[in-house]
Amino acid sequence: MIEKLLEGLSQKEVQLVAVSKTRSNEQIMDLYQAGQRVFGENRVQELTRKFDELPKDIKWHLIGHLQSNKVKQIARFVDLIHSVDSPRILQEINKQAAKHERVINVLLQIHIAQEEAKFGFNANEITAVLGEIEKGNYPNVKVCGLMGMATNTEDESQVRKEFNSLSQLFESIKSNEALDDAFQIKSMGMSGDYEMAIEEGSNMVRIGSLLFK
Question: For residue 8, which phi and psi values (nearest 5 degrees)?
């Protein structure tokens, strides 16, 4: 399954983040042996443990909601943080990255779903954040793109509309002079809707249940 999925996504120039939350080291190593190197975790404690125990060429992504007091635990090694959803968390990532003399890659999470429980910036908030980036206020953070999670619904037209809204927002801000060539990622789509997300422009998908049987 993993080889076929990797091949299909590679042909479409889409990167796979294997969502490994709650999975054992042995399960992760099975995918590792098949060629997968990018894994995503929701919880900081589990992420730090797996980083310490598993091969060091794995690129670890934090894909869950991140509290500012937990940033220091992953700042030394995390490859990409998907869930930057407030100026406060952006400030803390910048602070902790500086302590480790790193520049940490992040995605700005956009609230595209109808569900209030989902986190993320709205369009006005993103404009303000980009203004702060343009002022050079986050020298130890590199904004690599946007992430969004669609509404949990059976209505495919609604999900497609939400993915499309993120793609349009991405294109509208891509030319911002505060962003460099690293601003390339549209992270949207999970096991149940990743094909639709790709059709609407996603180039990074987060898949777990389809990989771990």
Answer: -65, -40
The alpha helices in 40-113, defined as continuous H runs, are: 44-53, 71-74, 87-99
| Ramachandran region, residue 113 (left: φ > 0; alpha: ψ -120 to 50; beta: rest) | beta
- The DSSP 8-state label assigned to residue 93 in this structure reads H
Question: Which runs of E-coded beta strand occur in the chain?
Answer: 15-19, 38-41, 59-62, 80-84, 104-110, 141-148, 185-187, 204-207
The pair of structure tokens assigned to 36 is 């997968």
Cα 53 from Cα 59, distance rounded (Å):
13
For the record, the structure tokens of 120 come out as: 């993320």
Bridge pairing between strands 141-148 and 185-187:
parallel
Domains of the chain: 2-207 (3.20.20.10)
pLDDT tens digits for 149-205? 988 888 999 999 999 999 999 998 887 777 878 899 999 999 889 999 999 999 999
Report residue 40: phi and psi, to 5°: -120, 135
| Cβ proximity of 188 and 15 under 8 Å | no
